[in-house]
Amino acid sequence: MASTEFYEKEKRFPKDNQEAGLVESNQITGQAVSSVAIKSNGRILIAYNHKVFDGAELYLVPIMQDKKITWECRESDDPIKRIDLEILPHSCRSATMDKN
Length: 100
Description:
By secondary structure, the protein is an alpha+beta fold. The chain has helices spanning about 1-10, 90-95; strands at about 35-40, 45-50, 55-65, 70-75.
């Protein structure tokens, strides 16, 4: 949400969590999430903990369509950091691509 709001205001994506007005990536956690980081080109990197697979990663990549932002799930390029399809969030299962 912070990344989308930043884009709407600045017409570009934030370069990192700080620019988006978020806390450090390792302070955004959840039951299975160890961090959430805003990366270059608006990508959001979600790193998972041992409840999913330690070190597993998933990217949310912004796609511009008709002046609207939609988010696409993409796996890590590193096969060691990929998440099993059945563990992915349901909304990502059919939309996950091979590259981030």
